[in-house]
Amino acid sequence: MTLRIGETAPDFEADTTEGHIKFHDWIGDSWAVLFSHPKDFTPICTTELGYMARIKPEFDKRNVKIIGISVDPTDRHAKWAEDIKETQGYAPNYPMIGDTDLKVAKAYGMLPAETAGSSEGRTAADNQTVRNVFVIGPDKKIKLVLVYPMTTGRNFDEVLRVIDSLQLTAKYKVATPAQWKQGDDVIIAGSLSDDDAKKVFPNGWKAPKPYIRIVPQPK
Fold first, then answer.
1. Which domain holds residue 196?
2. Is pLDDT at 127 greater than 80 in this prediction?
């Protein structure tokens, strides 16, 4: 199963390094980032977990909860955290799901539903599809899916940039252009006719083409 943007994120119960959770309840009224790892004690994921811990205050400012997942058990996550702290300077300061029965990985389409067995004996290569980022809104709908190969570390600054866009465009009738960042001009959503746009944007807009209507970022 492949999850698509706009679908409800699968709910689940799981043990984490911060206790047992029911995922939708854990999200509550916040946004959430679920990012997955094929195996504990892998080098690229070690750097990623440490970096996410370092920039967690940026997610907090945006009302975004972070949660990681690996198919290994939570006691191994705790041991891995010591290595992450030692090598990256920051230990995970967010929960890490233990997915030993592969239930969450399968529910999110990161492993085939017919995958048999548990995490026991599986290698990072066996689990190489478990390298995803999901951004989930307070409505529990999937807003973004990113899938990375084993050899490429994820750019979590880009995840923050996309969250800024998602939160802005959820509030206002605008869309963000290529390379947009916080404070840049935006484009009036195509769903607004010119007549309706004049009511929302009474100061008008720049239009290099009729279908490109540029306005300052709403505050």
1. 172-215
2. no
Q: What is the pLDDT of residues 44-95, one digit of tens each?
A: 999 999 999 999 999 999 999 999 998 888 998 999 999 999 999 999 999 9
The answer to whether residue 161 is domain-embedded is no
For residues 19 and 116, membership in a common domain is answered with yes
45 is catalytic: yes
What value does the mean pLDDT take over residues 22-37?
96
- Indicate if the pLDDT at residue 154 is higher than 60: yes
pLDDT on residue 80: 93
Amino acid at residue number 130: V
Residues near 19 by beta carbon (within 8 Å), at least 6 away in sequence: 95
Tell me, yes or no, whether 121 and 184 share the same domain.
no
Inter-residue contact 40 to 46 (CB < 8 Å): no
**195 inside domain:** yes
| Pair 123, 196 in one domain | no
Active-site choice (45, 84, 163, 215): 45
Residue 80: burial class (beta carbons within 10 Å; 0-12, 13-18, 19+): buried
- How many angstroms separate the CA atoms of 56 and 184, rounded? 24
Same domain, 187 and 97: no
**Does some domain include residue 62?**
yes
Q: Find where tokens 């995490």 sit.
A: 119
Could you give the number of structural domains in the chain? 2
